[in-house]
């Protein structure tokens, strides 16, 4: 199906620790396009890390910035786009992804189990939503979000027991099919 010329080649969604940023970089390299990450866009325009945006301005403000970042990247980034783990919860973003998919776009859900996500998340202080008890926070978050990830996805790829390079390769093959 025809895609708008400025639309992404693929959009990656999934929870923290699913490997979105790494896979976006590897997939972009394989496709010969640029990777982009909405978390990075937000930090760049806010001039501070996401953890500080949460503390200083609150999560609702972060979600506003995120909605704008996603809208703008979907309309202008002709490469591979990784979204922050919670971006799909915004109804406007979900609708925008549905429109992108209806126009032939690929929305890839990187599915992952807690056991494989945990070491990647690293249980550090960088993700404000996982403070306290990161394992149970992650699990609760994934339970709530899995239906949304599945609903927006045109392709589901399990990243358990696969390297990011293998995952990128699998997505590239699916895009060519
Ligand atoms: C969030 C995930 C983070 C970041 C923010 C909120 C979430 O991105 O956008 O901390 O709600 O799951 P990653 O999925 O890249 O960790």
From TrEMBL:
Binds 1 Mg(2+) ion per subunit. Pathway: Metabolic intermediate biosynthesis; chorismate biosynthesis; chorismate from D-erythrose 4-phosphate and phosphoenolpyruvate: step 5/7. Substrate binds at residues 39, 63, 85, 145. Its EC number is 2.7.1.71. GO terms for cellular component: cytosol. Its cofactor is Mg(2+). GO terms for biological process: amino acid biosynthetic process; aromatic amino acid family biosynthetic process; chorismate biosynthetic process. One of its GO terms (molecular function) is ATP binding. Residues 6-177 form the AAA+ ATPase domain. Keywords: Amino-acid biosynthesis, Aromatic amino acid biosynthesis, ATP-binding, Cytoplasm, Kinase, Magnesium, Metal-binding, Nucleotide-binding, Transferase. InterPro entries: AAA+_ATPase (IPR003593), P-loop_NTPase (IPR027417), Shikimate/glucono_kinase (IPR031322), Shikimate_kinase/TSH1 (IPR000623), Shikimate_kinase_CS (IPR023000). It is found in: Cytoplasm. Its main location: cytoplasm. It catalyses: shikimate + ATP = 3-phosphoshikimate + ADP + H(+). It is an enzyme of class 2 (transferase). Transmembrane segments: none annotated. Mg(2+) binds at residue 21. Monomer. Belongs to the shikimate kinase family. This is Shikimate kinase. It comes from Pengzhenrongella sicca. The lineage of its organism: Bacteria, Bacillati, Actinomycetota, Actinomycetes, Micrococcales. The gene is aroK.
